[in-house]
Amino acid sequence: MQIKLKEDIEIEEKEAYISREIGALIIDYETNKFYETNGTGTRIMQLLQENKTFDEIIDVLYEEYDVEREAVYNDVKEFLEKLKKYNLLEE
Fold first, then answer.
1. Three-state DSSP class for 18?
2. 15, 22 in Cβ contact below 8 A?
3. Alpha carbon 9 to chain centroid distance?
4. By the 8 A CB rule, do 54 and 80 touch?
5. 26-58: string of b/e by CB count within 10 Å (b at 16+)?
6. Average pLDDT over residues 67-91
């Protein structure tokens, strides 16, 4: 399944001194809203920008993080559902 961010979305990585943890700001220029994400969310956004599919994102994160594959699947699914809820993905 191909997942695509809306064109009016920009991701700006933030340094640890700005917030309690490293992550990114997701900026929706269409609505002028900002969303904050942690390091894992930032990595998912980077993979979306690389036009990775749902399954490819899970494969990459499974290799990069020391967690069960089912946990990766559930976390990615939940994160993408939030992006959809906030209209950050193209239909």
1. coil
2. yes
3. 12
4. yes
5. bbbeeeeeebebeebbbbbbebbeeebebeebb
6. 91
* β strands within 1-91, DSSP E: 9-14, 23-28, 33-38
Which strand (E) or helix (H) includes residue 67? none
The domain ranges of the chain are 9-85
Q: What is the mean pLDDT of residues 19-27?
A: 70
Could you report the per-residue pLDDT of 38-58, keeping only the tens digit for each? 889 999 999 999 999 999 999
> Maximum distance among all alpha carbons in the chain?
37
Residues 29 and 50: their CA atoms lie apart, in Å, by 20
Residue 24 is predicted with a pLDDT of 82
